[in-house]
From TrEMBL:
<feature type="domain" description="G-protein coupled receptors family 1 profile">
    <location>
        <begin position="39"/>
        <end position="287"/>
    </location>
</feature>
<dbReference type="InterPro" id="IPR052921">
    <property type="entry name" value="GPCR1_Superfamily_Member"/>
</dbReference>
<keyword id="KW-0812">Transmembrane</keyword>
<feature type="transmembrane region" description="Helical">
    <location>
        <begin position="60"/>
        <end position="80"/>
    </location>
</feature>
<keyword id="KW-0675">Receptor</keyword>
<dbReference type="InterPro" id="IPR000276">
    <property type="entry name" value="GPCR_Rhodpsn"/>
</dbReference>
<dbReference type="GO" id="GO:0004984">
    <property type="term" value="F:olfactory receptor activity"/>
</dbReference>
<feature type="transmembrane region" description="Helical">
    <location>
        <begin position="269"/>
        <end position="289"/>
    </location>
</feature>
<feature type="transmembrane region" description="Helical">
    <location>
        <begin position="140"/>
        <end position="162"/>
    </location>
</feature>
<dbReference type="InterPro" id="IPR017452">
    <property type="entry name" value="GPCR_Rhodpsn_7TM"/>
</dbReference>
<feature type="transmembrane region" description="Helical">
    <location>
        <begin position="233"/>
        <end position="249"/>
    </location>
</feature>
<dbReference type="Pfam" id="PF00001">
    <property type="entry name" value="7tm_1"/>
</dbReference>
<feature type="transmembrane region" description="Helical">
    <location>
        <begin position="86"/>
        <end position="105"/>
    </location>
</feature>
<dbReference type="GO" id="GO:0004930">
    <property type="term" value="F:G protein-coupled receptor activity"/>
</dbReference>
<dbReference type="GO" id="GO:0005549">
    <property type="term" value="F:odorant binding"/>
</dbReference>
<keyword id="KW-0472">Membrane</keyword>
<dbReference type="GO" id="GO:0016020">
    <property type="term" value="C:membrane"/>
</dbReference>
Length: 317
């Protein structure tokens, strides 16, 4: 059995999954993780086996997104399975997993902004694209994304070290963010960082989308390339909107739990699939399926090749 406790305004609600339900949820989660891991692995292998990709800033940013998504998906899947198998784990292990998950989650919108800017430069300043978007500058941009993504998680650690007693770090807890970081300061700090980061990314995507849309109407611009870049940024916007669903989660969860109090765990599981799993399918679609160059090299990982066997005659035996 699996227990989960939710604290409401008036009382504490305890719910429990049956063994068959818990098993089904874990099988589905692990299966989806295996499928996405295979797709991401094929993308990474394709990238590193072909020189034309790792010398192109566009594909470097893309593969960074793929690796980041793979890390985020693996950590969240581990947290999900661990919550069923062990229920309570040490604070140190819990912090390590939550740090990686939060770090990778914050990297996602920043990576989307970087990829949108690269497409903007390629379409609106094609003559200077090779000078502005170099491989070295792309690596610097990725380092900046990692640094900016780590800041919120590191400040969570500092606040927790300053506010929690020493005994807390030697205890075991049910590993969710609110149990690990209990100080109200962490909540308000996280809200501030989320609003700052997602506002910046939203404005970046909107600006680049509009500029590319205007460029597509210009006679001097390759309209087919501009239209494709515009659609790519539009898909980035969809990914961002799915990431921003985390903001409405508390209000939505309270409303759904109030309407369906007997389905608390199902509501949280659906939220996990929609917020953490579904957006990870979009990255392979944005480039892996829509990009002609990358699709040509990916076919070998997803198409079964049948070898023609020549029959052997009696004289050849």
């Amino acid at each position: 059995m699996f227990d989960m406790t939710f604290r409401g305004d008036a009382a504490t609600i305890q719910v429990r999954d049956t063994f068959s339900t818990a098993l089904a949820k874990n099988i589905i989660t692990v299966f989806v993780w295996l499928c996405l891991s295979y797709i991401n692995g094929a993308l990474v292998l394709t990238f590193f086996k072909n020189k034309i990709f790792y010398e192109d800033p566009r594909y470097i940013l893309f593969i960074h997104m793929v690796v980041n998504d793979a890390v985020q998906l693996t950590v969240t899947m581990t947290l999900f399975v661990v919550s069923y198998v062990f229920f309570r784990i040490s604070v140190f292990v819990c912090f390590s997993l939550i740090f990686l998950a939060y770090f990778a989650t914050m990297n996602t919108p920043l990576s989307l902004a970087g990829m949108a800017i690269e497409r903007y430069v390629a379409i609106c300043n094609p003559l200077r694209h090779s000078q502005i978007c170099t491989v070295r500058r792309t690596h610097i941009l990725i380092a900046v994304i990692w640094g900016a993504g780590a800041v919120p998680a590191i400040t969570d650690l500092f606040i927790t070290l300053a506010t929690e007693p020493v005994d807390f770090f030697h205890s075991s807890i049910f590993c969710i963010h609110s149990n690990m970081f209990r100080s109200p300061a962490v909540y308000y700090k996280r809200q501030a960082f989320d609003i700052l980061y997602f506002s910046f990314v939203s404005l970046t995507i909107i600006y680049t989308y509009l500029r590319i849309m205007f460029a597509a109407r210009a006679a001097t611009t390759d309209r087919s390339s501009a239209a494709k870049a515009r659609n790519t940024i539009l898909l980035h916007g969809v990914q961002l909107l799915m990431c921003m669903l985390t903001y409405v989660r508390p209000v939505l969860e309270v409303a759904l739990v109030g309407a369906f109090p007997k389905h608390v765990l199902e509501i949280r599981y659906a939220y996990y699939l929609v917020i953490y799993i579904l957006p990870r399918f979009l990255s392979p679609v944005v480039y892996g399926v829509r990009d002609d160059k990358l699709r040509k090299y990916l076919k070998g990982y997803f198409v079964c090749k049948l070898q023609r066997v020549r029959p052997i005659t009696l004289l050849e035996r």
